[in-house]
Specification:
heterodimer, A: two-stranded antiparallel ribbon, 2 strands, 1% strand, globular, B: six-stranded mixed sheet, four-stranded mixed sheet
Chain lengths: 309, 482
């Protein structure tokens, strides 16, 4: 690698207006054009519009728009019911740390020399690829308590009865329903975490493992002193994503229970404010507040986690 | 050379990619919903078909004077797009068949349909631009005063109200902006065979009798006395349609505003309806085991087979349950319909109200053809009759599905128009207070009451929720009405 090749790319910075450089720039711009366009059209413009909406009183149809200044923000911060929904985020926060731990454990196992590891990787990633609506149907059936007339016990209750227990109304019992939904959420998203961790673990040089083997390190020591420090950035990233996910959880409770039996979340309340009560301005303000909360939490998390380095 | 080639290839790839994505954007415009079209050319032949000709033969003159002055019906031409919510009727070809009847009168108009499963939200999004088809089902979330911003007027209220029901809430400054496609009565769907097997010979006339009937069904049959269908969140909103009927007063909603009555007070229509809901939901023997895992499509055959005895649903559901009965080989005549049993001075009332109305986009490039279609659809298409709905035309025969109402001597009435100064106020209060009696947000009082009942929290909790509703309603009412 000592001999530098004399390709046009290497020369380019020195000779800014060369034909090759211009061609390269055109190529780069063309490739960037579409993603940038999509990003601006579908993310930045709507987000900017939303911020604008949050200062207005408007309905779904956008007629009779009135500028109300900070009125919507005042309503958000003076209505305790809106923030009460964050208590359900605590369930998901707990769940997401269980999920991370479990994902790390499974990823470590799948990276060691076990048989059919590729098959198992596929199995754990599979739920992530299922459509969320299908997930909702699967778990409605899974947690069902049958009445013996129109339907029968679901999978979980069938197993419970098999061992002599009494069937439980998992989805119609306050408190329990949130635990069930967290379980669904873990089941669905753990595959993504595992794949991220596997990618990170495999990027650690095999030489280090070999050296550890020669020194007689056991599996736990390898994990503690090689894998964990090696994939630290990914763990931090996943933790930030987990907290963000717990605060803004929406999909799973929305389609499994519709937020009933005390399983509502802040985002469900936001969409209901916009589309059920026709208060699009207020809902936009709620979305902006959620965004700011996530930004603040992320910054705090980054600062705290940096300190113990 | 090699690198140069690669670069050129990369550039080409980029250009091609840019091209494809842009074309894809252009091409996908039509894929938002399911589009079915019946080109005019095809249907002229079909228009000779007996039913289409017979249905519309005598209707033609009526439509002639409804069409804009100076134009004979045959001269209308162009393509109109109809946006609607009946995906099922698009798929089974009913809509295409309807077009044949329309083309018999207007052979040069091509009608395209686009249906949406999530119609209410999709149409609201589309209406942010000028491009929302030519004929649409009028979005219910749109405020009455905003109708002229979006739709073209059909004519004066004084004239059209002689002909159609339910125009009151769709008129602004004496002009009508939507016509009724049909309407429904409020009441309770019950399986006649199960009720008879339980030993019930006369239908209940009070809410207490209704509850004891359900208990009787629980004791004497294997059926589930009442199916809440709680998982489908819209099902509970069907209870709201009973309220005005339970009042027996065509001015009930107006009086809520003028007399400043509380929604919930001892014996008020709201109390009668939701108190009954609470009592049924609070008794685990009267409803299904696990309300969160119910299944709307599955309940139709179960009802037909006598596994479910009773459900609160609008009369629109009757024809669907009869279809389900035919499919599972049960007797469709067992699908019975009764009013909410809250008698006032010995009489039982039920209110009929409109289903989706139909409006014409004021920006339509084929306005005349679109108006002609909407008027034809609401007057002569026979859509309401086929669906077992009440016709929006005054003087039309009641659908067979409601024949039981005649036998029971039910007083079916239509709400009176809201006074001009109160138009839109009821909706405004409903949304501002978030009481939203027709709504199905997860925080709605209906769900709070249902869940308090499911959790066995007792009547105190019901009273507490009712007091919350009254307070929220009163606060918004006083700030909006002054």
């Amino acid at each position: 690698m000592t001999k530098k090749t004399n390709t046009p790319e290497r020369l380019a910075p020195r000779n800014k207006l060369s034909k090759a450089y211009i061609e390269k720039m055109i190529t780069v711009c063309l490739f960037l054009l579409i993603p940038t366009l999509l990003l601006v059209v579908f993310t930045y413009i709507p987000a900017a519009e939303m911020v604008k909406f949050s200062f207005e009183e408007r309905d779904q149809f956008g007629v009779n728009v009135k500028f109300v200044g900070l009125e919507n923000y005042k309503t958000v911060f003076t209505t305790p019911e809106y923030f009460a929904a964050f208590k359900n985020s605590i369930y998901y926060l707990f769940g997401s740390f269980i999920q991370l731990g479990l994902a790390l454990f499974l990823a470590t196992i799948l990276c060691s020399k076990i048989r059919f590891s590729n098959f198992f990787k596929g199995v754990v990633f599979f739920p992530y690829m299922i459509n969320t609506v299908a997930v909702a149907l699967i778990f409605r059936r899974f947690f069902q308590k049958g009445d013996g007339i129109t339907n029968t016990d679901g999978t979980l209750n069938s197993i419970i009865t098999l061992f002599g227990g009494d069937p439980v109304k998992f989805l119609s019992t306050e408190g329990l329903v949130n635990i069930c939904l967290v379980f669904v959420s873990i089941w669905r998203y753990i595959g993504f975490d595992i794949v991220m961790f596997i990618g990170a673990i495999q990027s650690i040089s095999p030489d280090i493992y070999e050296a550890a083997d020669l020194d007689g390190a056991n599996r736990f020591q390898v994990f503690r002193y090689i894998i964990a420090p090696g994939i630290r950035p990914i763990i931090l990233l996943q933790m930030i994503l987990a907290v963000k996910g717990a605060i803004s959880v929406y999909e799973i409770p929305f389609i499994v229970t519709g937020g009933r039996f005390g399983s509502s979340t802040f985002v469900i309340q936001t969409t209901e404010t916009a589309f059920k009560f026709q208060k699009v301005g207020l809902a936009s303000a709620m979305a902006v507040v959620l965004f700011l909360i996530i930004v603040v939490v992320t910054i705090i998390q980054k600062l705290v986690l940096k300190e113990d380095k | 050379m090699n690198t140069k080639f690669k670069r050129t290839a990369a550039m080409c790839a980029a250009v091609v990619m840019a091209g494809t994505v842009l074309t894809a954007c252009g091409g996908s415009a039509n894929q938002g919903g399911e589009t079915t079209s019946a080109p005019a050319g095809e249907t002229t032949a079909a228009a000779g078909g007996e039913t289409a000709a017979a249905d519309n033969g005598d209707a033609a003159p009526g439509n002639g004077d409804a069409a804009p002055a100076g134009e004979s019906t045959g001269e209308l031409s162009g393509t109109i797009k109809v946006l609607h919510h009946r995906t099922d009727r698009d798929q089974d070809g009913t809509m295409a068949k309807l077009t044949e009847g329309f083309n018999a009168l207007y052979p040069n108009v091509t009608v395209e349909y686009q249906s949406f499963t999530n119609y209410a939200d999709d149409i609201a999004t589309m209406m942010q631009s000028d491009n929302y088809g030519d004929v649409v089902m009028t979005p219910q979330a749109l405020k009455q005063a905003d109708l002229p911003n979006f739709f073209a007027p059909f004519g004066s209220y004084d004239e059209l109200s002689q002909k159609y029901y339910w125009l009151e809430n769709y008129s602004v400054d004496g002009q009508v902006y939507a016509l009724p496609t049909g309407g429904t009565a409020s009441g309770i769907l019950y399986n006649k065979k199960v009720w008879a097997d339980a030993g019930i010979t006369t239908l209940p006339t009070t809410t207490e009798e209704f509850l004891s009937c359900l208990k009787q069904i629980e004791q004497n049959t294997d059926a589930i006395p009442y199916y809440t269908n709680y998982n489908a969140s819209w099902c509970i909103t069907q209870w709201q349609s009973l309220v005005v009927g339970a009042s027996g007063d065509p001015d009930y909603n107006t009086k809520l505003l003028t007399e400043k009555n509380d929604l919930f007070s001892k014996g008020s229509p709201y109390d009668a309806v939701y108190g009954t809901l609470f009592d049924i939901y609070a008794d685990p023997t009267l409803h299904e085991e696990d309300p969160m895992t119910t299944d709307w499509e599955g309940c139709k055959p179960a009802f037909a087979q006598g596994k479910i005895a009773t459900m609160v649903l609008g009369s629109w559901a009757i024809s669907q349950f009869q279809e389900a009965a035919v499919q599972v080989g049960a007797d469709p005549a067992d699908v019975g319909y009764m009013p909410f049993p809250n008698s006032i001075d010995g009489k039982i009332y039920s209110v009929s109200s409109n289903d989706y109305m139909m409006s014409v986009n004021k920006n339509s490039s084929n306005l005349d053809a679109a108006m002609a279609y909407a008027e034809w659809f609401c007057t002569d298409s026979g859509f309401a009759q086929n669906e077992g709905e009440i016709s929006g035309l005054k003087g039309a025969a009641m659908p067979e599905t409601l024949s039981s109402f005649d036998e029971l001597g039910v007083q079916l009435f239509v709400e009176n128009p809201t006074p001009a100064d109160l138009i839109g106020k009821w909706d405004e209060i409903a949304k501002a207070s978030e009481v939203d009696p027709w709504g199905d947000a997860s925080t709605n009082y209906k769900f709070r009451m249902a869940e308090a009942a499911f959790n066995g929290q007792g009547r105190e909790e019901y009273d507490k929720i009712a007091a919350d509703v009254n307070a929220a309603w009163a606060a918004s009412r006083d700030s909006i009405l002054g």
